[in-house]
Write a structure and sequence with these properties.
It is a multi-pass membrane protein. Keywords: Cell membrane, Membrane, Transmembrane, Transmembrane helix. 81% of the residues lie in helices and 0% in strands. With 426 residues, it is mainly alpha-helical. Mean pLDDT is 84; it is low at 1-6 and 206-215.
């Protein structure tokens, strides 16, 4: 159920390249300063309250907000012009941060959790709206030949910021304090807003801006997209596949610190190397997908999906067979890079597949559902694997079992995906 080509705007390659450059710059600025701000916020809360939850508030609030606003955000994105929504979202974020800056001095100690919770709730709503609107507007920014490049470069910018932000945040916080990060975040968001205003959105069709008035209508509109996904099984399977990838990824998020520090007593060195290696792998994979735009989906999706499970099992095996600092750092680090590359290839390919094949008037709701479920599955994965690593020894065995079970899962799905890709010449 694709949109008819006649309904799509004509966007030149030159315009597409300009849009991608603007999006990459805006994405990097927002992600880089946002990640530094988030870390500085955690450090400030930890200094004031001495509670470890200071660094976990975003992980708690973001999934709750994502699920709570999944229906209205999906409907808004499919109802209103995307650029208008993005401008409103960016402006809302600036206002929320400014209010937080003006009022945070009124709170101290444990009471600081009140303005911080409100800040994170507001910025999470803004982030979800922006992410969904951007994901649904790809046909308005670039032509079909550049959709994968847009997704790849956007994820590359986010991955690079994830690597660099912690390196800068701690040092800057020590010298300049938390106020500097608030001002930096306000300036960065203003710059991102100016870049957004300069971007040209080629609208697929005239969107009638009519507010959805009743709760019943909100859920009725979202129910329509659930029916659509159920009819088009490829979307159901791709969304589930994305959830599985994120769930499995959380096993490393929990497993690395637990196995390396608690079980093997190898210290922070190997842990830092493996965490950095995963982020570097995601960055490499994001850049690598730019060169794979002409490669068929059956290869750039199925091959990394299979290899991902092999890498995670080999990482577990490394922890069991030869758990020294050198072995874990070198072999584990290399495998973590490869795992990050495979994960990045899968995520980008799935996103592009959805963006290219979902009907335009459904894309906002489908992306909202996909992103909300993906964000919510991570805390569930962290909780699940936290329990498993507490009961099963050695911890590397969990990663090996993970790889084996995932391989069986992929083998079961392979006939369906290959048949679909063959029927659609992908």
């Amino acid at each position: 159920m694709n949109s008819s080509p006649a309904t799509l705007p004509t966007i030149s390659n030159h315009d597409s390249k300009i849009q991608i450059i603007k999006d990459a710059i805006s994405n990097f600025i927002s992600a880089f300063t946002g990640n530094m701000f988030s870390m500085a916020l955690g450090l400030m809360l930890l200094d004031q309250t001495k509670l470890p939850i200071s660094f976990g508030m975003t992980s708690i609030i973001a999934p709750i907000v994502s699920i709570a606003f999944m229906v209205p955000i999906g409907n808004w994105v499919d109802t209103y012009r995307h650029k208008h929504l993005l401008v409103i979202s960016s402006t809302l974020r600036i206002i929320i941060i400014a209010i937080f800056y003006a009022t945070m001095g009124l709170f101290s100690g444990m009471a600081l959790f009140i303005p911080v919770a409100l800040l994170l709730t507001g910025t999470s709503i803004s982030a979800n709206l922006s992410l969904t609107a951007y994901s649904a507007s790809v046909h308005e920014l670039v032509n079909d030949d550049f959709i994968q490049k847009l997704s790849s470069i956007s994820q590359s910018a986010s991955a690079l910021s994830t690597i660099l932000a912690p390196l800068f945040a701690v040092g800057i916080y020590s010298f300049l304090g938390f106020d500097f990060f608030i001002i930096m975040e306000l300036i960065a968001n203003l710059v991102a807003l100016l870049i957004l205003l300069s971007m040209k959105f080629h609208y697929v069709k005239v969107v009638e801006e009519r507010p959805t008035t009743s709760e019943g209508t909100q859920f009725a509109k979202f129910k329509a997209v659930l029916s659509y996904i159920n009819q088009e099984k490829i979307f159901k399977y791709t969304i589930v596949a994305g959830l599985v990838v994120n769930f499995v990824y959380s096993s490393l998020t929990v497993g690395y610190p637990y196995i390396i520090k608690t079980e093997l007593h190898l210290g922070n060195g190997p842990l830092g190397i493996l965490n950095a290696a995963s982020s570097i792998g995601i960055l490499i994979g994001s850049l690598f997908t730019i060169m794979l735009s002409k490669v068929r989906y059956r290869y750039k999706f199925m091959v990394p999906f299979i290899l991902m499970n092999v890498f995670i099992a080999l990482i577990g095996l490394t922890f069991i067979i030869h758990p020294s600092q050198v072995t874990v750092s070198i072999i584990g680090g290399t495998l973590s890079v490869l795992f990050g590359i495979a994960t990045s290839l899968i995520n980008i390919t799935l996103q592009v597949l959805i963006q290219k094949t979902v009907a335009n008037d459904m894309l906002g709701r489908v992306m909202s559902l996909d992103q909300s479920l993906s964000m919510s599955i991570m805390p569930l994965g962290v909780l699940t694997y936290s329990i498993l690593f507490g009961f099963i020894r050695p911890g590397g065995l969990i990663l090996i079992i993970n790889g084996v079970l995932m391989s069986i899962y992929i083998l079961l799905l392979t006939p369906f995906f290959l048949r679909y890709f063959k029927d659609h010449h992908m």
